[in-house]
Design brief:
Length: 422
């Protein structure tokens, strides 16, 4: 039984991506506990009785203690076995015996170990909260409890919301962090806001792709309306560009990866509408797209701000600026073209001191030849940018797949070049 518990713990840990040393240790501990306890009580029934008591008390502790144990019920059962051994040794023959197990000593030992472990967890919880407490001066929402989560860090803010990192209030486990978007008071004054938000959540939950940060649910607590989503660990493309600039090959590779994610969303009829370096996070598994908060089905007005041109001026397509009735995936293609232009030239395609000035350039000013800013850009790559950023969406690639097909040709050509020319 102890070996089985250790094996289950090993499997549970493996699924959670724990360290290999920990996995081997959990299996060894389970096997040792089985051998030690069985050698003492010399009864399988006695072992089953102790495991049952340990699991029962571990379950009760899991339910009622605010500091949940890291290893869950299985871990507490193993600790309970250790407690039973200690109780048998310390209290000896006290009380009745069943199948070779002294019930009172075993019960007392299990309670003692549970109490010690929980005390350690409570102390650790207090230290963790103290660490977060230093951030309260930065934002009054820090350490606030929202739903079953505790807000611990502010990640950023926009025109309509603030985004925080939160952890489970029960465990404070940072490995299970989520992101929480809290909408500003101005955004929720609209009487239809809640209904629109629910429709938006339903839309976003259709997207299941490793390159898209998942949305979990929305809710409200008092006057706060919020949305919970996956916490994506990594730095944004805009942050990376402030420190290091990719070469042409890396830029094309990145664009193809992002385009593949957008192509998936477009097939489901979802347009992002706000592709920009700030919404692209560079994780170990590849680029991921953040903030589908402006996403919408093709051909419908925006769910959260109907009748208003939404997006970021430096990367907005002409049809978004005009607030055309039908905005489709080619708007994301245009924005991705803007990102690609910036990656391969080091400059945004259209710049200005004011948002209106930039938007007017998107509408009316011809796109400058990117090769004038970077002569190393191949002709075929420059043509891809021109097509993706055509003023008239009908002059762009018909869909993201067509754009990616051309970019993959450029990718192959760049990889065939000597390293110094890429």
């Amino acid at each position: 039984m102890g070996f089985i518990l250790g094996l289950v713990e090993w499997t549970e840990a493996f699924l959670k991506g724990r360290d290999r040393t920990y996995l081997i240790g959990a299996g060894v501990v389970g096997l040792l506990l089985f051998w030690v306890f069985f050698s003492l009580v010399k009864s399988l029934w006695g072992l089953i009785i102790v495991v049952t008591i340990s699991a029962g008390l571990g379950y009760a502790a899991e339910r009622f203690y605010p500091a949940k144990h890291n290893h869950g019920l299985i871990g507490m059962t193993l600790f309970g076995l250790v407690g039973a051994l200690i109780g048998q040794r310390l209290l000896g023959t006290l009380g009745p015996s069943i199948a070779g197990v002294r019930i009172i000593p075993a019960f007392a030992g299990i309670l003692l170990v549970n109490w010690l472990v929980r005390s350690m967890r409570l102390a650790s919880r207090a230290r963790t909260l103290e660490k977060y407490n230093a951030r309260v001066a930065e934002d009054s929402m820090i350490l606030s409890k929202l739903d079953e989560y505790r807000i611990v860090e502010r990640l950023g803010s926009g025109a309509y919301s603030r985004v925080y990192r939160a952890v489970s209030d029960r465990t404070l486990n940072e490995d299970e962090s989520i992101a929480v978007k809290i909408f500003n008071e101005e955004a929720i004054k609209d009487e239809e806001f809640t209904r629109r938000l629910e429709r938006e959540i339903e839309l976003l939950q259709r997207l299941d792709h490793p390159g898209i940060v998942k949305v979990f649910k929305s809710g409200h607590q008092g006057d706060l309306h919020f949305m919970t989503m996956e916490y994506a660990d990594g730095e944004t493309l805009s942050s990376r560009l402030r420190k290091d600039w990719p070469n042409l090959g890396e830029s094309v590779d990145m664009t193809i990866a992002i385009g593949g994610v957008l192509g998936y969303a477009h097939k489901l009829g979802v347009v992002h509408r706000d592709i920009k370096p700030d919404n692209i996070i560079l994780s170990k598994s590849g680029p991921r797209i953040l903030d589908f908060g402006l996403a919408r089905p093709e051909g419908r007005s925006s769910l959260t701000q109907a009748g208003t041109a939404l997006g970021t001026p430096a990367y907005m397509s002409p049809e978004q600026i005009r607030d055309d009735e039908h905005v489709d995936g080619r708007a994301d293609q245009y924005a991705l073209g803007c990102v690609l232009f910036e990656l391969i030239t080091g400059r945004r395609p259209f710049e200005g001191d004011q948002s209106v000035q930039i938007m007017m350039k998107h509408l009316n000013e011809p796109l400058q030849d990117p090769r004038k800013l970077n002569p190393a850009i191949p002709d075929q790559l420059a043509k891809c940018v021109w097509y993706m950023m055509a003023k008239d969406k009908n002059n762009r690639f018909p869909n993201m797949e067509a754009a990616l097909a051309q970019l993959k040709q450029v990718q192959a050509e760049l990889k065939a070049q000597p390293a110094g020319k890429k």
